[in-house]
Amino acid sequence: MARPPDPDRRGATLAKASDYVLEHGLAGLSLRPLAAALGTSPRMLLYDFESKEQLVDEVLAEIRRRLAAMLGDRRELDLRAIWEWISAPEREPFLKLFFEVYVDALARPQAHAGGAAPLVRDWLDFLDSRSAADPATATLMVAVVRGLLLDRLSADDPERTDRAFKRFVELLGR
User: Fold this and answer.
1) Is the pLDDT of residue 130 over 80?
2) CA 47, CA 37: separation in Å to the nearest integer?
3) Which of 40, 66, 113, 174 has its Cβ near the most Cβ atoms within 10 Å?
């Protein structure tokens, strides 16, 4: 009978693997380079997480927990404060990973529980908890913010996306 994985080692490995994925992304993720970067072996990764898919699922869940903890319960945030928070340079690794997973969930919905829908729901739930927007307005707000963030990451002109966001808020009357 095999011994169960050591929870402390597994937790430390999950934390390091999450750091690695935030830095390198998921595209082309291979267990060998990941294990080498973490100072372990592919065999130990599989022992602790059963499969690469399970490891990725847990890494993504850990990264979502980290992002939620960073935001905390800041119910006082208005749309402008949300933009400032989410577009800050230290959030860039989270945003890049979000868009990578979002596109992958569209291309390979079977690889992600619920496809891309949970990613959209996360954003809507976050906004719903902080604004009195009706569902259609909340959807519009999420779509514009998500689009501007994608544009911000794709082009080297953050001031332009900041101005576009300010214009959007003006048009919304918020």
Assistant:
1) no
2) 17
3) 40
- In this structure, the answer to whether residues 84 and 110 fall within a common structural domain is yes
| Residues 100 and 172 both lie in one domain | yes
Which pLDDT tens digit goes with each residue over 65-119?
Answer: 888 888 775 656 688 888 998 899 999 999 999 999 999 988 888 887 777 788 8
DSSP 3-state of 100:
helix
Our count of domains for the chain comes to 2
Tell me how far apart the alpha carbons of residues 83 and 163 are, in angstroms, rounded to a whole number: 12
Range of the domain at 145: 75-174
Of 72, 100, 129, the residue at which a domain comes to its end is 72
Amino acid in position 142: V
C-alpha dihedral, 68 to 69 to 71 to 74, nearest 10°: 110
CA separation (Å) from 47 to 8, 31, 53, 54, 121? 14, 12, 13, 11, 33
∠ Cα 9 15 126 (to 5°): 140
| pTM of the entire predicted model | 0.83
